[in-house]
Task: structure prediction
Amino acid sequence: METSAKTAMNVNDIFLAIAKKLPKNEQLASGLPGHGRRGVDLSENQQQTSSGCCK
Result:
């Protein structure tokens, strides 16, 4: 599919076409702990341990 960022021709259409072809993961919708998405814990309560010369 031909697109143009300059004129925005087919930009939305290509994103929709890509999204339709992505595999669906049933576990993401389950909401069960330990299933589905894994990510980075950004909570401020955790402290990182330093190892090495740079602090």
